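Protein: Major facilitator superfamily (MFS) profile domain-containing protein
Species: Cryptotermes secundus
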Amino acid sequence: MSGRSKEPASVFPQYLAATAANLATVTAGAALGWTSPAQPKLEAGEDNEGWIVLSSEETSWIGSLTPAGSVIGPILVGLLADRIGRKWTLLFTVCPALVSWIMLIFVDTLVLIYVARFILGIAVGMVYAVAPMYVGEIAESRIRGALGSFLQLLVVTGYLFEYCVGPYVTYTHLAIVSGCVPVMFAVSFVLFPESPYYLLARGRREEAARALQWLRGQSRAEVQEELDVIEVRLSLALRERTLNYKRLSKKR
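Structure follows.
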């Protein structure tokens, strides 16, 4: 029997979507790397026009509050990712990131700097939790490992950005250019599709098919088999979750 063989899926849209999603991790790297160039400026009180001069102990707290805030991020992702989707949860991280950078530009008290850094940590924790989730769900298994490596690459890019720019600008200008990073991520990522796994889990099959068609560069007929496989996986996961819940209920 003759027939047209199935065209292999294109990897370019997947690389493009994974790169755009992981631009959020540049924000995380910039947030964590900001402390190094900002610390001497805050301790000297020169580049911030002398409105505040901090001790080394106070600036060490500024550095540690971002990792502390990142503990909250994954909890929020757990609440949001299955409700509004992986894509919009990732875009939501722009909100706390922007709020914190704006605070760092305008606040003039140590306590508010602490608050800003803690809020920025929440954004960092969310990015680390949801970016791998999105990339893992849009990628084919043959390139999933390669796309997963983008996270660390772009985190380091964020660090490098701060280390290269920070020494040559004032404290205020450093906060301004750092605040541009999440904006650039949002503009770059907003037009990319949602995770097909999430869309199918919410019963939005047609949207999932369109997302998969774009990500694979294939027709509806060509992605049908993968759609069916994803549905089976979701069904098995739901069944396993239900059985585990019943087992726990019986033990009580």
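Remarks: Residues 198-251 form one domain.
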